[in-house]
Amino acid sequence: MLAQERHKIILDQLDAEGTVTVAKLVTLLDASEATIRRDLGALAKAGKLNKVFGGATAIRRMGLVEESVARREAVMFEEKNAIAAYAAGLITDDDFVFIDSGTTTACMIPHLTNTKATYVTNGVLHAYRLLQAGFTVYLIGGRVRSSTEAVVGAEGLRGLLKYNFTKAFMGTNGITPDEGFTTPDVEEASIKSSVIERSFISFVLADHTKFNRAFSVTFAPIDACCILTDRMPKGSFGDKVIIKEVKG
Fold first, then answer.
1. Which of 113, 244, 81, 95 is nearest to 168 (CA)?
2. pTM for the full model?
3. Is 29 in the same domain as 109?
4. Which of 21, 71, 147, 210 could bond to 206 as cystine, CB 3.0-4.6 Å?
């Protein structure tokens, strides 16, 4: 079988399953393990899959289009809520916390009980809800991005320079081993990157649908944050990052 034919079958398997092992491909393609590993290496180099230990995972590349907050709030709500409840329980009295804009991080607010901690956010609605709940909250200044209701831009980046966070709770649009944590917007990615750099520890809150999807801009490598999720996807992420599975 020609290499081009093997490559097509490998990619078809990934489209259908999201992940595939070397052992399965050896049987499916009647090829040697060395041949399969070379094929996976070539496809990974071409940006067509993620090569992981023992096999490969699909890259689902997404464009610049991002749904509005209103449309995303109801998607995977139970999973998001369970993740957010666990995240809220990680906050202690002396924490100086950043809560990123996003629908999963928004679910943290009803679960927050620590009134001694201080909260900073770039989410306009997050700030309002935190204030209404009686927490001490700071909203960074800058341009508000309509699709995510997040403060972005140079003014927001300047505002972050004076802060040193103990914990940051971040949202993401996609996670892959190679691209890391990704989002469609350059300015929003810059805010996320700056927060992570200025945090002692950063947590990314992501339900299982965010894995194996890559958007246009990487804001942090895969090993920069601890991932809180409802369910691990097929494939190998655990050897590169600390992951906590949260059960609802």
1. 95
2. 0.74
3. no
4. 210
Structure tokens at 153: 């831009």
Side chain identity at 150, as an amino acid letter? A
Instruction: Judge whether 64 lies within some domain.
Output: no
The residue segments making up the domain with residue 34 are 3-58
**Helices 3-17 and 33-45, axial angle in degrees (round to 10):** 70
The residue ranges of DSSP E strands in 33-84, in sequence order, are 49-52, 55-58, 60-61
| Contact between 80 and 108 (Cβ < 8 Å) | no
**Of the candidates 146, 148, 123, which has an alpha carbon nearest to the alpha carbon of residue 215?**
148
Q: Residue 52 CA to chain centroid, in angstroms?
A: 18
CA 28 – CA 39 distance, rounded (Å) = 14
Reported as a pLDDT band with limits 50, 70 and 90, residue 76 is confident
Q: Are residues 149 and 73 in the same domain?
A: yes
Q: Distances in Å between the alpha carbon of 92 and those of 65, 70, 118, 132?
A: 37, 31, 10, 20
Which of 51-55, 60-64, 79-83, 198-202 is most confident? 198-202
- Kindly report the CATH number assigned to the domain that includes residue 145: 3.40.50.1360
Residue 135 in contact with residue 112, Cβ under 8 Å?
Answer: yes
Judge whether 63 lies within some domain: no
77 and 33 fall within a common domain: no
User: Amino acid letter at 191?
Assistant: I
Q: Is 18 left (phi over 0), alpha (psi -120 to 50) or beta?
A: left
Distance between CA atoms of 138 and 215, rounded to whole angstroms? Answer: 29
